[in-house]
Amino acid sequence: MRPNSPKGMGKMAKKKSKAHLLKKGRPALYDTKVRPHLKKIEQMRLQMSEEQIAKVLGVAYSTFRNYKNNYKELEDALERGTAELVCDLKSTMIMKAKGFEYEERKIIKNKNGQVIREEIYKKQALPDLGSLNLLLKNYDPEHWANDPQALAVQRELLELKKKQTEDNDW
Q1: Full domain range(s) for residue 59
Q2: Which residues of the chain have pLDDT under 70?
């Protein structure tokens, strides 16, 4: 081992040499490939996974995960995008659970491919029972459960635990 090599230096020397490397040389990839695109990342999160976002930005997924852990602004941008996605998905599921009306368009063409007319049909999507069931279980769990008896037993256990805690019988 050479005396001036990083392995031969103590811990303090290693930290100084790393800090020295960060100050000079090319800028960190985060500053050039990620930070300028934080708003875009927030929007991409509506349609893409973190792995796909990393690929679009030209950064390895493992590096992207490290950036997410080390840079609060990136983590916040991803969380805002995820929150917006969840909000959109909730409203879509509610709409599907309640049923909705939509328009279907049909373009009629002749043999030459010229448009003769456009027909517009109003259609009704019926309420989806699966979406309805899931929403009720999540928004009104006291009244909707797969197993009402198990729910009643869980409530009783919770009451007993509260009583034990109050009486300090643990």
Answers
A1: 13-98
A2: 1-26, 169-170
